[in-house]
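Batch manifest line 365
LIGAND: calcium ion
JOB: complex structure
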Amino acid sequence: MQTRVVMLADFDYFFAQCEELRNPDIKDKPIVVGVYSGRTEESGAVSTSNYIARKYGVKSGMPLFLAKRKLEGTEAVFFKVDHEYYDQISDRIMQIFRNYATSLEQVSVDEAYLDVTEQVEGSFEKARDYAQKIKEDVKAQVGISFSIGVGPNKLVAKIACDSQKPDGLTIIKPEETKAFLAPLEVDRLLGVGKKTMVRMEQMGIKTIGDLAKYDCQMLIEVFGKASGIYFHNAANAVDNEPVVEQGEAESISRIGTLKQDTCDLEFILQKTNELTEGVYRDLTNRAASFKLVSIYVVNVDLSSKSRSVTLEQSAKDKETIKRNIRMLFEKFLAESPLQVRRVGVRVSVFSKEEPRQKQLSSFFL
Ligand code: DCP
Ligand code: CA
Ligand code: CA
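JOB STATUS: finished
ARTIFACT:
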């Protein structure tokens, strides 16, 4: 199997950062976002807080009255959760991520895996600049910072991401994975809860390194076949789970920057034709067809827009992509007075000749 380059992006102090974004003047104060239960004015729990509030000991899940007590005498500002607003911000970031990855798997409102193997040509060196570029793009377009972990699989990417926050960028190359995991405590692995941790400790296993060395057969005897094999593989940084789009149709996309800012249709189409070649290559590799064609535009003022068209019949050919991209841009340029800086092409895959099976078993092999 080809070495993959997988990223996990996790937005920094997400709900609180969203509040900072729309209230920039309170950025240097402690900020707490809470879920108010409504019983009394004070009752409820901390959803999250910015890093300034964390310095005073505020933690997610803590009762609000306790957070208030810890922040007494400061200029702390408290907000009620506003999921609708956070979802909107999250969606905008996820849309940007789509332009950078062959597949995107959103795992929560503030976390997503990106498979960028092709984009960085399998190179972990290139992955650093690439990750930096994604961070800068999102910062410029949306104003949100996040941490990125890069590894040869989802398991390593996730732990890498957690190891440096906020605004972190941690890259673990394939040959570094085992040494990276070895000193960490076993509960850093997904699926190792308190009970398992205690059991492992009794067996003399404290770190992931201890677990990696432990006899696999013995693990199977204690934890059962599936878990035993999973623990063994995970500790050895083995994880073959693909990055898969959840729910929605998968999409294939490319984005690029124009040589100069412009409103000229033909100039833009030269670029999108180039991008379409890449999209088409992926499409044929995956033996997929599409029913939705979209364009993505970043204007000179860094605002971004997208437009889509749903085809009456699914298609597989390049000309259909190009024809619809032309039509979408003709319309778009007629409506928008701004010069265009970056453009993207996307098709949403709705059927494949060989449907990919969701293989849970690969997790346990
Ligand atoms: N969240 C919550 N209650 C919790 C934990 C989290 O409501 N007990 C919400 C608020 C967070 C969001 O989920 O902003 C994401 O959770 P994270 O664990 O990723 O934490 P943050 O993004 O807040 O901080 P970090 O910078 O550590 O990622
Ligand atoms: Ca998270
Ligand atoms: Ca987060």
